[in-house]
Amino acid sequence: MKRLMLLSAFALAGCYTEDAVQPQGVGTFDVQVKGLYVANTTPRAALTVVNDCATRYGSQAQVPAEVRGTADCRYIIPRSAVDIDLDITAIDVKGQPLESFNGPVSFRVVPGNLTGAYTYRWSNLTNGKGTGTVRASQLYGELHVWVEDEPPEVDYSEGQVAAGDLPQEPATRSYATGLSKSLLFEEPTLSTVQTPQNGDQLTAYNGTYMRIGRAPESGAVLRQNCPEVNDPNNGQPVTLLVTGLDPGGFFVTDLTACRVKEGTIQGANTQTAEPSGYFPGRFNSMYIYNYSFPEGLDPGDLLWTVAGSVQEFTATTQLTFPSWTVREHVRLLPQSEWNKYLNLAPPVEINGRLCGYSASLYITDPLCGYSYGNYKMEGLESSLVKVRRVRFPEVIHSCDANGNGTVPFFCPDTRAGTWGSCGGTDNPADPDLPERQCNINCTLGMGPFAGKICSEKNTYDTFGQFVVEMNPSGAPEAGLDGSVPGRIERVTAQVDGNPDTTTWASTKELTPGRKVHIWCDKAAFLRFGGNSLPESDDVPLAARTLLTTTLSNAQFIMWASAQNEANGAVTCQVGTNANTRINLVTKDAVPDLVVNCREDDPDTSRAQQCRYLHAATFDIVGHLRQVSAARPRWMVLPRDQDDLCCYPGPDMECPKPIKPCANP
Question: N or C: which end of the chain has fewer CB within 10 A?
């Protein structure tokens, strides 16, 4: 026992203490936000806050700085870059200002993206203090500015760091970080994600995880903050409607989205303005890609929220890996109420004005919405739309000469007025040249397919998509497209009261070789030729009757006179057919409709159905999707058989299983 106590005493004699090494250096940064401004404005314009806050204080200019960006006075979600001014102080590990810190610090914003020159991504601190300006975009929700002791974010060009004003890197980095207080912006809506920014029709939020909407258990209902206080939807609750399902997901539309004025979005290519002054769509719809059928949802259901990762797929914006919360299942209600919300989202008609028509024919007319700056179509992406009186293809022709399962794309040379390869001049030795020219001729109705509606077979077999020809420009009274008045030539032939003389009136110059559609309010005689009244037989046209004819290469003026002077002057309208096409996919909605058919099919029943198909015109409702690699680029996806109806040809029927339109 004594021996044990002695050993313990020796052991205790060998123990000693030493002060632990205390951490030193920078621990964090104090980040004070001094102001938020619209980038590149002189004098600097303060970033605006939501309307209800500005109204509360009298105007945007009267809103106090200390309430901007708070819960009661959120900043709007900006469509362009924002400059955020900062005061920065280095803080040591004991929470005291660190005057010995000298060197560069970098900036970050969460959520959001840095943009602009490198000088907006870092700043130098001297004696522990400094100032800086962060330039950022895609700002929304609860935001913090981060100041970090690490290298600044850089851009890359052709695999190399893009040149710019970057700091001299110090020997070591601590990777200390400091955050600003919360800056509150509006919560995102579908329109936030879909509205183009900085002249780019693709979403600015690609790769960002976002939640749209708010469930009641998460706080107050999310409400619309419209740029115009008198917008009927300003202050209305965000209302997310399921407009359709497909095997891989569903489409959703925000019923109360704000209207958007034409001319307010950078990069818009508007050829003919909307009579209302607003875009026909509100950038308020999106496809939700669920990777499988969305069990438990039905068209017409309302959602509180939808969340997922924003992604561009063939230039159509979608949410992937989604989740959602249901607000109302309409199929739990009486059947008479299943469509009560869908009736609040009527389809928008796609016409020549939306396709991008100017007042005169243009090389890209055959491809509806071909311009990437066509924000009329972009604003309707994933929304319900309607195409009226379209014609199905008469020919489905394969251009895959080498049998490799692909057909090369084509692009216009707008200066030369020709079509060819994309990004260069056609090389006669290019092995793809014959296939490309075949695709051009078929899709645009040129060469051997002039005057025909042709769709390329490889595309049809692979994707189920085919082109339909849209309703041509002409007299609205005849059921034609009158959306661009400059495309309709009007001529009035007066009468002089003398039955022995005939007064003729002529149109302005038309395009030789084109199909024209003529409608007159009274019975008329017509002639076709040049600048002088042609010595040809009169072509009689009954009152309020449509005449379709193709001008010869020598015919570029139409002449008109009244058949009966007693009825007074006659006015005729002439529209030139631009052969505009848009894509359609019916394989899921109407699998029994046979599109690739032959009128000379040995089976007499199939041949008859094919004649019905080619002679008819159709009204079609569906969701609008963009397919950047396709020609044309826009596609209509009907949901089911009820989204199609038919106007039969003379003395014919609708092809099975399509029903006649109720109101021809």
Answer: N
CB 466 within 8 A of CB 584: yes
> pTM (2 decimals)?
0.89
Torsion of CA 490, 496, 502, 504, to 10 degrees: -20
State the Cα–Cα distance between residues 471 and 453, nearest whole angstrom. Answer: 13
Who's near 159: CB < 8 A, 6+ residues apart? none
Token duo for residue 200 = 């780019």
Q: Residue 320 in contact with residue 308, Cβ under 8 Å?
A: yes
Q: Give Cα separations from 77 to 74, 82, 224, 310 (angstroms).
A: 9, 10, 12, 17
CB-CB contact of 219 with 197 (8 Å): no
Closest Cα to residue 188, out of 164, 204, 175? 204
pLDDT digits (tens, 9 = 90+) for 399-445: 999 999 899 989 988 888 889 988 777 788 888 899 999 999 999 99
pLDDT (tens digit per residue) in 506-520:
999 999 999 999 999
Contacts of 493 (CB under 8 A, 6+ apart): 503, 504, 505, 524, 560, 561, 562, 569, 570, 571, 572
* Closest-CA residue to 581 (of 644, 625, 634, 617): 634
The Cα 308–Cα 207 span in angstroms is 10
Asked if 401 and 431 count as a contact pair (C-beta separation under 8 A), the reply is: no
Per the CB < 8 A criterion, the answer to whether 393 and 327 are in contact is no
Sheet holding 570-576: strands in order across? 488-493, 570-576, 515-520, 546-550
Cα distance between residue 212 and residue 547, in whole Å: 51
Compute the distance between CA of residue 585 and CA of residue 455 in angstroms, rounded to an integer: 12
Q: Side chain identity at 550, as an amino acid letter?
A: T
One-letter amino acid for residue 143 of the chain:
L
Q: Are 385 and 345 in contact (CB under 8 A)?
A: no
Distance from the first to the final alpha carbon of the chain: 114
Three-state secondary structure along 563-585?
CCHHHCCEEEEEEECCCCEEEEE
Compute the distance between CA of residue 578 and CA of residue 444 in angstroms, rounded to an integer: 10
pLDDT at 4: 42
Share of the chain above pLDDT 70, in %: 96
Alpha-carbon span 188 to 140, nearest angstrom: 6
Alpha-carbon gap, residue 574 to 115, rounded angstroms? 51
